[in-house]
Amino acid sequence: MGIFGAFILRRSTREELAKSEVMHVDETSINKNGDRYWLHSASNSLWTYFFPHERRGTEAINSIGILPEFKGILCHDHLKSYYTYSNCTHALCNAHHLRELDGVWEDDNKQEWAKEMKALLKEINRATSDAGGMLGTDESEKYRQRYRKIPQNAEAESPPPDETNRKGKRGRVKRTKARNLLERLRTYEGDVLRFMDNKNVPFTNNLAENDIRMTKVQQKISGCFRSLEGAKIFCRIRSYLSTCRKQGVNLSRALQMLFRGELPDFASS
């Protein structure tokens, strides 16, 4: 039952995440015997699934098998590969936006629009929290109008690149980091502000970042994984322990059950 039970739990985790209302995803680089691989994370408040892969994008995400079946709200940090999945609704991590806005303010000639946008996002987050997790329609629309004015007024501080002297070059003209952020906040307004209209959508993707943090600790201590199979074993153990913790199962008991070939009640039911 031990190995078989572990596979049952892995399959159950994928199934539970695929049908959840909100799912958080993230990825981080890992060292596999000197080669860069990626550890992918999919999680919600009750389930966690980790998977290592040599790729970061859609090839890896498809091989995991959760996101192609997911139809809920996907919280992420704007990795473009996630936007290839149109069967779900997207919500962007505003913790990332706040950090990037700080960078624009500190490193790009104190662009005022970045300071204004950061203050507004934090104000909306406080108002949403005070309102119980979701704003009323009228208040939401007022904030949305204020939000839209900032990118409009930012054109002078962060103009688009000059495309008149390209001399036959193909492709998109390179933008500055400030311009890329400005265009993203304008284009993906709905995904940035989704948290204020749906109480189940958080302001940040911190749940995924917290879940994946132990991998960083492991990499700092061990330095690398010696093989892909070793990375997979680590991911199976971490997925199991993280899920047990979220389900209220004591981790010592969870390990004892694992070695006895037993499944926790939440999995066996």
TrEMBL record:
InterPro entries: Transposase-related (IPR052344), Transposase_IS66_central (IPR004291). Residues 167-176 have a biased composition (Basic residues). Residues 150-176 are annotated as: Disordered. Residues 12-232 form the Transposase IS66 central domain. This is Transposase IS66 central domain-containing protein. It comes from Kuenenia stuttgartiensis.
